[in-house]
Structure formats: structure tokens, C-alpha cells
Specification:
Layout (H helix, E strand, L loop, with lengths): L4 E12 L2 E13 L4 E5 L6 H8 L7 E6 L2 E2 L7 E4 L11 H11 L7 H11 L15 H15 L3 E5 L7 H18 L2 E5 L3 H7 L2 E6 L4 E7 L15 H17 L5
Parallel strand pairs: 3-8, 3-9, 6-7, 7-8
Antiparallel strand pairs: 1-2, 1-4, 4-5, 9-10
Bound molecules: adenosine-5'-triphosphate.
GO molecular function, one term: ATP binding
Keywords: ATP-binding, Nucleotide-binding, Transport
Pfam families: ABC_tran (PF00005)
């Protein structure tokens, strides 16, 4: 079976006035079709850079990234992103921003309005349809970005701390929705987060990265039963064990003692 994402010996460097930064060093990773992979690691370890290389937005110094067997050289079709800083159109309303996702999807134009209304309901932005992004909080903008991504329904979701600006309850709710959609459609997801519990609750695998240069130090298979209810997992001993191990890896990667 062809991997959805196949990364071989990837290195990425950034050059600036203060010298060259080795952001990623000889990293190899394979993501199967339909797999949900979470990436955790200390700040600055190259998680966002890795997503950007997969998305064809940053060039590799060496190594190769393939999506569906094809080398990535520019943003590939069928890939949806959700970046840390939202990329909403400032001149378009909430509804119009979500509609952009529909336009990228295979949905018939006659169904756009219904889908936009469903997604606004899903991300709890009823009453804000006609607002512009500048009039929304960071968490609300993140929910619009999520709705736009869900409207697109790409084959591959690249999500960079998608729930980082949300309050705890909304974050749990959005995680549950993402799981529900993923479980019904089985698209591939690469999901960067700083939240270990979120990573273990959602993903099939949790990849732990070390700080500069970014490398993979652990690759955990999360065999917790599905469908999962993120909140109910909090009392599960296997869930706690996995979170504890990843916590220890991260502490070690950051050079901290527990
Ligand atoms: N465009 C760029 N130019 C120069 N250096 C960069 C650029 N983008 C990233 N870097 C550097 O590459 C390294 C990895 O950055 P990256 O944003 O990928 O880390 P991260 O793990 O996503 O961090 P965080 O968890 O804080 O979001 C950092 O040292 C960063 O300073």
C-alpha cells in the first residue's frame, strides 16, 4: 500500500543574518492512508516546519517528501491546512470564509449555504455569520478556520495547534467533532499540539520530536479502543501510562528533570 505521506531523510535549514539554523535533521516518517498522527515536541523543535514541508511551502535542504507516492514541490491538491496563525480572509464574513472551504470541496454549489449553516452550528458561531474576522476573538477565529477546513474535506489534514486558542471545554468539544468526522471519513491527519493528553486522546500514533535540530525520538502507537470519547479517557490507566511516558520523553528532550 502506498503511504499517504512518505518522508525520507528530510533535513531543513534556514539561513539568515545570524547564520544557519538546522531546523530538521534527517527525519524519516511514514503516515498510512487514514492514519491520525499527532506530533509533540518542545517549542522550536521543527513541528511547524515539518508541516510546511509536507504542504510544499518550505523547501528541503535534502531528503524527500512524497504524498501518494508523488514528490512534493508545491502545495499539492487535496491537502488542507490549519496554521497556528489563522489565514482567514479579513475582508470576508465568517460565512464567506467558510464558503471558501466549500468551493474547494466536491460539494455542489446548491449545497454550499446548507453546509455553511451546519458548520456554523457545529463550531458554535451562530449569530456571528455576518461578522468579519477582525471582530472575533482568537478562539472564534480558530473555530472559523476549523469550519473552513471541514467544509473543504481534504484527503489530508495538516493541523498546527488547531485548538491552541480555545478554552478547555471548547477544545474537548472540537476534538470530539474532529474524531467523529475522521472516524466516518478516515482521512489522514497530521496534528501538531503541545497538549499531550489531546495527542493521546485523538491519535493512532504520537511522534515525539527533540529540539534543534528536530528529530524523532519516539513513535508511540496508541491502541486505545475506538470510537473514543476524549473526556472519558481521562480515567483510563493505559491513557495515563502513555501520557506519563510522553511527558518523560518531552522532559528529557528539553533537558529538564521531572
Ligand atoms: N522562516 C524561518 N526563518 C528562519 N528560521 C526559522 C523559520 N521558520 C522556523 N525557523 C526556525 O526553525 C526552528 C523550528 O521552528 P518551528 O516553527 O518549526 O518550531 P515548532 O516546533 O513548530 O515551534 P512551536 O512549538 O514554538 O510552534 C526554530 O528554531 C525557528 O526559529
Amino acid at each position: 500500500m502506498t503511504a499517504k505521506i512518505d518522508i525520507r531523510q528530510l533535513s531543513v535549514q534556514f539561513s539568515g543574518s545570524s547564520g544557519t539554523v538546522n531546523a530538521i535533521d534527517r527525519l524519516s516518517l511514514s503516515v498510512a492512508p487514514g492514519e491520525f498522527v499527532a506530533i509533540v515536541g518542545p517549542s522550536g523543535c521543527g513541528k511547524s516546519t515539518l508541516l510546511r514541508v509536507i504542504a510544499g511551502l518550505v523547501e528541503a535542504a535534502s531528503g524527500q517528501v512524497r504524498i501518494d507516492g508523488e514528490p512534493v514541490s508545491e502545495p499539492p491538491p487535496g491537502v488542507g491546512f490549519m496554521f497556528q496563525r489563522d489565514t482567514l480572509l479579513p475582508w470576508a464574513t465568517v460565512a464567506a470564509n467558510i464558503r471558501v472551504g466549500c468551493e474547494l470541496s466536491t460539494l455542489a454549489p446548491a449545497d454550499y449555504a446548507r453546509r455553511v449553516a451546519e458548520l456554523i452550528e457545529l463550531v458554535k458561531l451562530n449569530g456571528f455569520e455576518a461578522h468579519y474576522p477582525g471582530a472575533l476573538s482568537g478562539g472564534m477565529r480558530q473555530r472559523v478556520s476549523l469550519a473552513r477546513l471541514l467544509a473543504y474535506e481534504p484527503e489530508l489534514y495538516l493541523m498546527d495547534e488547531p485548538f491552541g486558542a480555545l478554552d478547555y471545554q471548547t477544545k474537548i468539544m472540537m476534538g470530539r467533532e474532529l474524531l467523529r468526522i475522521w472516524e466516518s471519513r478516515k482521512r489522514s491527519i497530521v496534528f501538531v499540539t503541545h497538549d499531550i493528553e489531546e495527542a493521546v486522546a485523538l491519535a493512532d500514533r504520537v511522534i515525539v520530536m527533540s529540539p534543534r535540530p528536530g528529530r524523532i525520538v519516539q513513535d508511540y502507537r496508541i491502541d486505545l479502543p475506538r470510537p473514543r470519547e476524549p473526556r472519558a479517557l481521562r480515567g483510563n490507566p493505559e491513557f495515563s501510562r502513555l501520557c506519563g511516558m510522553i511527558w518523560a520523553d518531552l522532559a528529557q528532550a528539553s533537558g529538564e528533570t521531572l
